[in-house]
Amino acid sequence: MHTFEIEIKVLLGSQEKASELVKKLYENDSETNIIGENSQLNHYFLVQGDFEKLYQAVQQYIAPEHHDKLHQVIIEGKGHSIRTREVDGKVLFIVKASVDDTTSANGTARIEFEEKINLSLQEADQILLDNGFPYQSKWSRQRKEYKYKDYNVCIDKNAGYGYVAEFEKMITDKDQAESTKEAIRKELALLGIEELDQGRLERMFTHYNSHRPEYYGTEKTFIIE
């Protein structure tokens, strides 16, 4: 059974606004709790290669029980994005595909493959590069993840962007994607915050990619309206 990631992003910017949001989470739901904290390196790749060749190349480094899922995401999805991630001493191979009209890189409804790959980050990256998928971007971030009501809320300190919140819910029926997004937006309104506009998000993403060496691995941020 596929699961679908429904996610809405909120640009917080400052540490003060991030702290205010955390306070409101606890005020609105007494059972709110932190469920994870880590530092990440995320590498994004341009989708210019052959997915079938990539599948053949990476499957030997991924547990066999996940092979069918990886193949299904590649075949059934559209507008794919590919990334590698180093977190908590392990490397993940991630393929996301959109199931609505947003992009798979920054979209609001996505089908996702995310599993451990038995390689270093550099080795995993090299497989992608060797199969025609060049680098698009590299991100560094510090993440705290909270369980809030029926949602996972990630508050990230991102290179370039500053603090960003992601409200996420996993569903098994993609026909519920729009109603789930609307439920998240109502929750944002209760918390006094607003969804990050997709157009602005794309402008931020483009600016970051054009100036990545200035921000990757640093505390520097920028503002793009």
Helical content (DSSP H or I, runs of 4+): 25-40%
Radius of gyration, in angstroms, nearest whole number: 17 Å
Tell me the number of strands: 8
Uncertain segments are none
Strand line-up of the largest beta sheet: 1-5-4-3-2-6-7-8
Q: Can you summarize the main beta sheet?
A: 8 strands, antiparallel, barrel
Order of helices and strands: EHEHHEEEHEEEHHH
Give average pLDDT, whole number: 91
Shape: globular
Distance between the termini: 39 Å
List the helices and strands and how they pair.
Blueprint: E1 4-13, H1 15-28, E2 33-45, H2 51-58, H3 67-76, E3 78-87, E4 90-98, E5 109-116, H4 121-130, E6 135-148, E7 151-158, E8 162-171, H5 177-191, H6 198-210, H7 212-215
Antiparallel strand pairs: 1-5, 1-8, 2-3, 2-6, 3-4, 4-5, 6-7, 7-8
Protein architecture, described:
The protein has 225 residues and is α+β, with helices and mostly antiparallel strands. It is built from seven helices and eight strands. Strand 3 and strand 4 form a beta hairpin. The chain is globular, with a radius of gyration of 17 Å. The protein starts with a strand and ends in a 10-residue tail after the last helix.
